[in-house]
Design brief:
The complex is a heterodimer of chains A (434) and B (317).
Chain A: E1 9-18, E2 23-32, E3 35-40, E4 53-56, E5 61-64, E6 66-71, H1 84-94, E7 96-101, H2 112-125, E8 129-132, H3 148-154, E9 159-160, H4 169-181, E10 185-188, H5 193-196, E11 201-202, H6 205-210, E12 214-215, H7 218-234, E13 237-240, H8 246-257, E14 262-267, H9 268-272, H10 294-306, E15 311-313, H11 321-324, H12 341-350, H13 356-371, E16 386-396, E17 415-425, E18 428-432
Parallel strand pairs in A: 1-4, 1-5, 6-7, 7-8, 9-10, 10-13, 11-12, 13-14, 14-15
Antiparallel strand pairs in A: 1-2, 2-3, 5-16, 16-17, 17-18
Chain B: H1 24-41, E1 55-60, H2 66-77, E2 81-86, H3 90-93, H4 98-106, E3 112-117, H5 122-127, E4 133-139, H6 145-159, E5 166-170, H7 177-188, E6 192-196, E7 212-214, H8 217-221, E8 226-229, H9 245-252, H10 256-259, E9 267-269, H11 282-285, H12 292-311
Parallel strand pairs in B: 1-2, 1-3, 3-4, 5-6, 5-8, 6-7, 8-9
Classes of the chains: A alpha/beta (434), B alpha/beta (317).
């Protein structure tokens, strides 16, 4: 799948944006032996090793590749939805150079042997980096904690029960307490399942008009508030997996002000779409937690800009058409996002809601830092995981052209501005628009 | 054959409910007396008569093989009439309260009752309702004073002292009465104590009991003279307090590799019964640096010393 070998590459005349250094400048980036040698003004074609491939970027953006903190890949057990191969093709096309896959597979990624299997499968079939999160509890059942120490040693970068909440506070307390000894990051989906009940979209006027059962934002804040108390009690490392509403931001702000080791993600869906986009029961916009109201979306974007929300992730969740082509309440939740997360995020940049640096920081630098991964930066000596992006070219999303095995994109037929031209992983070009 | 007793130590208390409150002199007095019984127990003729005519009841609400048999032998060797009552027996099964049991037994005029109970504080509660001496043989996660004394005797005989030693107590500190009694005793005797466990097995505020806290074995065993391992109960192994036995053994089980973090002449102890392959590796448990069998021997001598020293304080002694 490699489109080129590992010759040195000079990305010349680029607009270099490195959120790890708040850098936004015009210059050249030299890559050799899989690492970034230099990223600065005026390296020029004269100052590079013999045989270097010189690419004139003509002012296009060069930035660290995206580190997507939450993506479902169907291995093991659900390869019909997505494989490491197909997910990584989609990722490369979307500018994502590192996928963090989720443990809600079958069987769940809850023991060291499965972590090992995932890493070997990914090594053999993926064209971008893949790191798994492992389950917090065995079988994602919320009862008994997994082998956090051995799983981390095997390569799990964080611990999560995916889209399940650990409702038993004692189990959560022990996982945070035990995990702290191993410096494990506990990533928790904050939705009280009893408050969610049979709800399928944001509670409020719009759900009432559609005749759909709602999910109150309190389902999220109740669980998040509980977790903040448990983090204060245990001193554990905690990450809220998917924050969606303005009230949660108040909780987060308080916890961060108190000095707790708490960070949070929001999905690209929740920062770019709202409940009104569901329109006439569009099931591709049925996600968990549900899309919220426009004031919530705006508050989330402001929180990303301020760094209160640390990470924006794809929440990539491939669903077969058959599970989506159903009445809204019966359709499977989830949307694909690896291939569109950056471009959808650029909508916020073009509309002036968010700067390019905060956007890229939330999609690369911060997740890499939180997970202890080396990417998310263009500093000399860092892995050569980077992207070349045309910020302005207009195009229309055609689901049939998407690389993911499933086509359940909420941006179906959407008009986009900006496109990934080239994705480089470990110094090799793995995706390129010719 | 009754050789002349060198020690005339008297424990000027009615009960032994815990190590808490014992002075350094009292602990030393008990250990010195126990030394004499170690010698006695190694002879063919082990019988003394100092408790002749006395009645000792072993009241065990929680099953125990080694502690109960150790107390039984200790009482018999001192000449007492020993009766065993265990949790499986009649009235305790029939819902009689602890206090009613105490009042009933008290009416039979025992001289010493040895009590083990699953609830912290139960032994003290019972002691308030009887006229005889009470010895705590373990109450919940509170105290197990004779275990701490036998551990101290074992250490003193092998290291020549307790003062100034570094002792690591490793494992399930949260639920362990052995840990609590040992922490108090070792601190009283001038040792430095470190507890080593995953955070889920550490009681909150433990550092204010006069111990250092370590959460991994490498840091925990550094410069240590004595490594005391604790038993991990089966129901705590599988995801509740620790994820699994294999992960526990990997990070906290004492094997030769982890023992190498301690001082070269460090010795290994365990109150038993052991979970081999969970908290301790067989090679270490049965190795040259293990004191585990000696602890059992010291147990009988220490319990004889406790019974003897308490009996000297009984009426008509």
């Amino acid at each position: 799948m490699m489109l080129s070998d590992r010759r040195p590459i000079l990305l010349a005349n680029a607009r270099i944006v490195d959120p790890s250094r708040d850098l936004d400048t015009v210059g050249d980036v030299l890559i050799a032996d899989g690492v970034i040698r230099e990223a600065k003004r005026g390296i020029g074609a004269a100052g590079v090793p013999e045989g270097t491939e010189v690419i004139d970027c003509r002012g296009k953006l060069v930035a660290p590749g995206l580190v997507d903190m939450r993506a479902f890949v169907g291995e093991p057990g659900e390869a019909s939805r997505e494989t490491f191969g197909s997910a990584s093709q989609a990722a490369a096309a979307g500018g994502v150079t590192t996928i963090v896959c989720q443990p809600d597979t079958s069987p769940a990624i809850d023991d060291p042997a499965t972590v090992d299997y995932v890493l070997r499968r990914a090594r053999d079939t993926a064209i971008v980096h893949v790191h798994p999160m492992a389950a917090i509890t065995k079988g994602l059942e919320g009862k008994e904690m997994t082998e956090i120490g051995l799983l981390k040693a095997a390569g799990a970068v964080a611990f999560t029960d995916a889209d399940k909440s650990v409702t038993n506070a004692q189990v959560m307390r022990r996982a945070l307490t035990y995990g702290r000894d191993f410096d494990a990051l506990i990533v928790h989906h904050t939705e009280d399942p009893d408050l969610v009940g049979d709800g399928v979209m944001n509670e409020g006027e719009f759900a009432s008009r559609l005749g759909l059962l709602g999910v109150p934002s309190a389902a999220e804040t109740v669980m998040l508030e509980r977790d903040m108390r448990l983090v204060a009690l245990t001193g554990g490392r905690y990450h809220a997996a998917s924050i969606t509403c303005a009230e949660s931001l108040e909780v987060l702000q308080r916890a961060k002000d108190a000095g707790l080791d708490i960070t949070a993600s929001a999905s690209i869906n929740h920062v770019t779409l709202n409940e009104n986009d569901i329109g006439p029961y569009r099931t591709f916009l049925k996600v968990v937690p549900p899309l919220r109201a426009e004031p919530d979306r705006k508050a989330l974007v402001a929180a990303v800009a301020a760094g209160l929300v640390d990470v924006v992730m794809s929440d990539h969740n491939p669903q077969d058409v058959e599970t989506k082509r159903l009445p809204f309440a019966e359709a499977a939740p989830g949307a694909i996002g690896l291939e569109t997360m950056l471009i959808a995020g650029l909508r916020l940049v073009h509309s002036g809601e968010l700067g390019i640096i905060p956007l890229l920081r939330a999609m690369s630098t911060r997740p890499a830092q939180l997970l202890g991964l080396p990417g998310g930066t263009l500093r000399s000596g860092s892995p050569a995981d980077l992207i070349v992006v045309d910020l302005d070219v207009p195009w229309i999303v055609d689901p049939n052209e998407l690389k993911s095995k499933c086509k359940n994109t909420p941006y179906d037929e959407a008009r986009m501005q900006g496109r990934v031209l080239r994705t480089i992983v470990g110094g090799r070009t793995v995706y390129e628009i010719v | 054959m009754t050789s002349a007793q060198k020690s005339s130590f008297v424990l000027s208390r009615r009960h032994l409910l815990g190590i808490e409150g014992l002075s350094r002199d009292e602990i030393t007095g008990l250990l010195d007396l126990a030394e004499e019984f170690v010698e006695l127990n190694r002879q063919v003729e082990k019988k003394r008569v100092s408790l002749r005519g006395r009645t000792q009841i072993n009241l065990f609400f929680e099953v125990s093989t080694r502690t109960q048999s150790s107390f039984e032998l200790a009482g018999k060797r001192l000449g007492a009439d020993v009766m065993n009552m265990s949790a499986s027996s009649s009235s305790m099964r029939k819902g009689e309260t602890l206090i009613d049991t105490a009042i009933t037994l008290n009416a039979m005029h025992p001289d010493i009752i040895i009590v083990r109970h699953h609830a912290s504080g139960a032994v003290e509660l019972l002691a308030r309702k009887v006229d005889c001496s009470v010895v705590n043989a373990g109450d919940g996660a509170h105290e197990h004073p004779t275990q701490a004394l036998l551990d101290a005797l074992t250490i003193r005989r092998n290291k020549g002292r307790i003062d100034g030693l570094n002792v690591a107590i490793c494992g399930d500190i949260l639920h362990s009465r052995v840990a609590r009694s040992n922490i108090i005793l070792l601190n009283t005797m001038g040792a430095r104590v470190r507890v080593v466990a995953p955070s889920t097995l550490l009681p909150p505020g433990i550092e204010r009991m006069g111990v250092e806290v370590a959460r991994d074995m490498r840091a925990g065993l550094a410069d240590v003279d004595i490594v005391m391992m604790l038993r991990l109960q089966r129901e705590r192994m599988n995801g509740s307090y620790v994820p699994s036995t294999s992960e526990y053994f990997q990070y906290f089980g004492l094997d030769e590799k982890k023992l190498a973090y301690a001082r070269p002449n460090a010795l290994v102890m365990h109150p038993g019964p052991m979970n081999r392959g969970v908290e301790i590796d067989s090679i270490v448990a049965d190795g040259a640096r293990s004191l585990i069998r000696e602890q059992v021997e010291m147990g009988v001598a220490v319990r004889m010393a406790v019974l003897e020293a308490l009996s000297r304080n009984l009426p008509n002694a």
